[in-house]
């Protein structure tokens, strides 16, 4: 029994049907962690990209150093740091939130490079024209440069969304009951691993296919010349 649900081990088909509701509960946790982690990564990555684009090295170089540190250290190390070290300084977060933040922080470094490539694809003449019209750098970034960059980076961001989904099982080390951890628990208690793990593989395949289809649809709908701001 898990989550108050009993499973039927009389046959493989009955066993698979009986554990499906439990796996779907774990899948919902996986989706929540991936979405929250991607949201953190998208926001923090944009901030890092903006800081790295600043001409003042006192601001841009720390952003570059932080990006390299996040990219070059394992996700598991960052997760352990947030979960075990921060409480020593009075910062205690739930396991799920800690895991989602670890995913977001790690992938913010990758997304910052995606943002940077998109921002650099916008012609500098538009920035120069905005400066000539006495438009502030922040307004130029938010109203002119960023809306043109986003449609160009949607496919790359979609790839990282799928990658975050596939990295969510790492959160099981801090006792987050995502779908793979649930399947492992079921296998430990029933000594039948092949069915729950196979079902998890199928659920992940379905989830990533849906996410990829959504990203492709969004990429086709967004105008390549930029998002109109009205």
UniProtKB/TrEMBL annotation:
Superkingdom in the source lineage: Bacteria
CDD domains: TM_PBP2 (cd06261)
GO BP field: amino acid transport
Keyword Transport: yes
Domain ABC transmembrane type-1 residues, every copy: 27-216
Membrane topology: Multi-pass membrane protein
Transmembrane parts of this sequence: 27-51, 91-111, 193-215
Transport in keyword set: yes
Pfam families: BPD_transp_1 (PF00528)
Record's subcellular location: Cell inner membrane; Cell membrane
InterPro entries xref list: AA_ABC_transptr_permease_3TM (IPR010065), ArtM/GltK/GlnP/TcyL/YhdX-like (IPR043429), Ectoine_EhuD (IPR014341), MetI-like (IPR000515), MetI-like_sf (IPR035906)
Subcellular location, principal: membrane
GO MF annotations, alphabetized: transmembrane transporter activity
Keywords, ordered alphabetically: Amino-acid transport, Cell membrane, Membrane, Transmembrane, Transmembrane helix, Transport
One GO cellular component, as annotated: ATP-binding cassette (ABC) transporter complex
Family the entry assigns: Belongs to the binding-protein-dependent transport system permease family. HisMQ subfamily.
Protein name: Ectoine/hydroxyectoine ABC transporter permease subunit EhuD
Species this chain originates from: Alcaligenes phenolicus
Gene name per UniProt: ehuD
